[in-house]
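User: We ran a pulldown and think these components assemble together. Before we commit to crystallization trials, I'd like a predicted model of the whole complex to look at. Sequences follow.
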Amino acid sequence: MTNDDRFDELLQEAAREHNSAPATPRAEMWAAIAAARGKMPVETAPAAQEVAAPVRVIPLHSRHRRAFVWVAGLAATLLVGIMIGRSMTPAPDVRVAASATPHSAASSSADDPGKFGTGPLIPAGGGPAAIAVAPGAATTVALAPDGARHESRAALTGHRSPDVAVRATVRDAAGDAAGDAARDAAREAALPYRIATMQHLMSTEALLVSLRSDVRAGRRDTTIASWAGQLLGTTRMLMDSPAGRDPQLKQLLDDLELVLAQISRLPGAQGEAADLGLIDDAVRHRQIMTRLRALSPDT
Amino acid sequence: MEDALIARARAGDPTAERALYDAHVDRIYRLAFRFAGSDELARDFTQDAFIRAFSRLSDFRGEAKFSTWLHTIAVSVILNGMRKVKTMRQREAPLDEAMTLGTTRREAEPDLKQRLAAAIAALPEGYRTVFLLHDAEGYTHEEIGEVLGVQPGTSKAQLSRARAKLRDALQAFAGEWA
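Assistant: Here's a predicted model for the assembly, 477 residues in total across the polymer chains.
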């Protein structure tokens, strides 16, 4: 046997001992997975020594200062997204290609708050927007430029406000094409929101990890409150954007708003232990880290 | 058996998901721990891998074994996670540093296992991945090829280079196996 062979043997032996894992914490991880997926955990004979506990946070040491650049870029991206979204709509009217029955139009995916990740999204606010819905014979409904979103919904469901000028034209063959075009436009308009949201979630995850890491290491960071303040502003912008229409994302943004508000109000260098404990409790109790990672872009 | 579980899980049966989880979680967690060296990171990577796998279950066509498909996702999650960790920590010691340590005086050095751990950590990612999958976890080159999307020959070559680098980094200990 050559020296190289002996070395390889030794190496394999050492490799098997390298980072040898302890017992698998099955129940804890399953609880976190179920929570992240919005399901009730299914119990199947967890090990006796396992106790369900809140999801732990990765103890990373991030460089906080860089986050300010991220936050600034994020806010700029979001603003640009809003501008693009508003500028991409073709006319001051809201054009709705909807199926002949107002009810089916109202229950369509575009007006539905669900599925931020897959469905077309529409710029929020009172500005003009394109809503694409049902295939087949369609009705085009034009709303006045000052018609707010809820007013357009009211119009679609038949409860039309008298101060909203509504003119309806039935289109047959052209309906599908108009619907497709509007869908594409809405999807394009939604892209900046999606990018901004994912960047924001990553940045917020970095802050929370960093805070936890600092607390554990007994470090003090005077900038974390202002960092959280900036992220809080972005969170609120996103809550009012189409991103806030996805129920799962909305719930997460609501929770993030609470936690970020707590962090941004930390007194002094990094706050009292009681304040930090409350924040930590909120993060653990709401399983924010797991939910953040579940919504992060695919790796 | 597993096909039936997958079909049920795909239909949204949480019991089937749990059964799949139970069948594979030990190996995924062990793999994650092997790369991360930390329980918290390993848990996180494992959870993330299963969350992604369950959410993409409709993409699983059965062309490969479910375990291979799951491990492909897990390895991707682990490697991306470790990249993120290292970027944030800015602690990654360059390989040169570990190799330089090998030339210093023996008395002042940590023991072989510690030095080996440092040398493994300092390996380039591709080498380290193949080395840990093969030598630590016992994957075959064919399995590594499937998981990493490379040819088995590439895996063999990377393992050979990884061992050569480790040998260089640990030259000071040559007398122990000579």
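Chain A touches chain B through 51 residues (CB under 8 Å). That may be worth checking against your pulldown data before setting up trials.

User: Thanks, that helps.
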